Amino acid sequence: MSNGTPEQLGAMSTSELRRYAFALFSTILDKTSPAKEKKESWHNPSSELFLEELVMQVMSTRGIKKVEILHDSKYFSTNIFRVFESVAEVASILGKENIEERLTSGEKSKLVVGLFPFDEKPKKMISESSLSKSIQSAQLIDANGMGVFLIPNYWQAFDKFKVREIFNSFGLEITALIRTPRDFLRMGAVSPIIVLVERKFHTKLFLLDAKNFESIDISFENFFKNVDSGQIDTGIWENHESFEGFDTWEAKQKLLSLSEGYIKHYQEIPLVDVAVEINLGRHNQEFEDKRNAIYIPLIGRGNSLHQLEDTSMKHQNYCQVVLDNKKVIPMFLCSYLNSPYGKTRLELMKSEKGGFIPKLNKEQLNHMKISLPSMEMQQRICDFLDKFSLLRETIRKVEENFALNPVETKTLLPTIEDALNVFNQLSAGDKIKSLVRAGESKVLEFKQTFVMDMKTGSKESYISDASLKTIAAFLNTDGGDLLIGVNDAGEIVGVDEEIEKLFSGSSDKYLLHFKNLLKAQIGEQFYPLVNYNLEKVEEQRIMHVVCGRSDREVFVSNKDFYIRTNPATDKLDGPKQIQYIRKRFGY
Which of these, 271, 263, 199, 194, lies nearest to 235 by C-alpha position? Predict the structure, then answer.
């Protein structure tokens, strides 16, 4: 982390200066902490910054000076709480054995921060759980206070242990749910949930799925300012009752975007209507090999199969579905279930039942709807699948024999290159259509033109500036795709008109102009991170710009700094810029 200049520090507000000092203090401690302490904790150093930013914003907006801490999780060392000591009075650090004694004192707190146990056994009764005992600390929150609690996964806390009901019984309501980044804990399979509670009842709930540690200050601000960003990555407001967990929400959004493709033209039919039998696997028993059967995995993310011999798990982990071959072709149904759309539907069904190991059951499969084209279309798709399978096998054999027949190189290489060109053209167009269906996001932006003002038909610098700001923002955040030739409504309009009018119909001149502006305003040192090309999609040319994630900050025209905040490009100045650069680039 670099020290701020006197001018930068002088421009900071009191709370921003406190936050800056707080971060500097944490960085110094990171460098001086004993190795033993670091080894014993399960949280990543960035987790401290994540909690720091959230708690700091709570304290700043509420004018809080003192924090009460409950520590009841073996995955965190008490060292994590050092981040509060530079800016707040730590009233006490409690374990669950101290809670009862503390509650009897009658003293309340404006801010309670709690780390709850993550090691509950699923079959424990609620009344016996450490989680339920630990949550008693929420009663310490006063009338205008707030609780910030780190709890296990959504299903365990809300479906099994009913934490919302417990909070409600204390006169508290959950006002925000924040899923922490996937690497919040060193045991990366667990993504804890941060729950914010208050003694105020709200009809809506703030939801944030924090994918990484950058831009969290802006995301948290959206909560405190009641801003709905329209994207769960930076915060949305939803009704309490409509939210069923982050995995379920994510799967439903993915299904919605995927259904905008050809799937929506298919007829939806319950699986049970095209099945002759639906058989669950039994413990230590194997299926009878039946004609027209497919095998759907009940756990995991493996593929559905139409050959029993291809199964790789025990049969108890599959469901055998014997199909009516007059209504559906087994190979087609497997292909459908293994597509992004089909897999997402299966994952959504698994997440609805919760559990540490999500699993499908027979009732869900009976009611599962599948999208079916006509039998004629199914057969055509299967014919293509057979040809692709044959092509893969042919390529495999050529690859195996290639080292033994190097003489064939001269004749084979041009043929292979021709085939690659054909497939690249096909895949590029399909990829762009897939991106368009997904809609704009933190990593995807649409622009109708690169330089042409659609109203005047003239070349305007403010039009190209908008694209260059987006490119810089992608580089400064997580990378992304810019599609030029797609309007805000997601319609593919192409860039042919501006190439024809402003570049004499020359795509080479168009690409050269793009390169020159990229060099002038972003810098040629970033060329390796920006790939661009004109691709043909539905008879229109689209400029596809793919941006990587930069390991150093990028300024437009050496002065303006931009980031992506779902699905917008935002300019950062002053202390916010300093803080972001420190977190993102490690200065």
Answer: 194
For the chain, state the CA radius of gyration. 28
Assign a CATH topology to domain 438-585.
3.30.950
Instruction: Return the CATH class of domain 259-372.
Output: alpha beta
Q: What's at 329, amino acid-wise?
A: I
Q: 481 near 443, Cβ under 8 Å? A: yes
What confidence tens digit (pLDDT) does each residue in 407-420 have? 555 566 667 766 76
Q: How far is CA 102 from the centre of its chain?
A: 40
Comparing 285 with 121, which gets the higher pLDDT?
A: 285
Average pLDDT, rounded, for the chain: 79
Q: Does 92 score more than 80 pLDDT?
A: no
Q: At what angle do helices 330-338 and 375-402 cross, to 10 degrees?
A: 70
Fold type of domain 11-252: Rossmann fold (3.40.50)
Question: Are 92 and 69 within 8 A, CB to CB?
Answer: yes
361: nearest Cα among 318, 324, 314, 322: 318
Distances (CA, A) of 34 to 21, 27, 29, 31, 40: 22, 14, 9, 9, 10
Per-domain residue ranges for the chain?
11-252, 259-372, 377-435, 438-585
**Among the listed residues 403, 537, 514, the one whose alpha carbon sits nearest the alpha carbon of residue 468:** 514
Is the pTM higher than 0.85? no
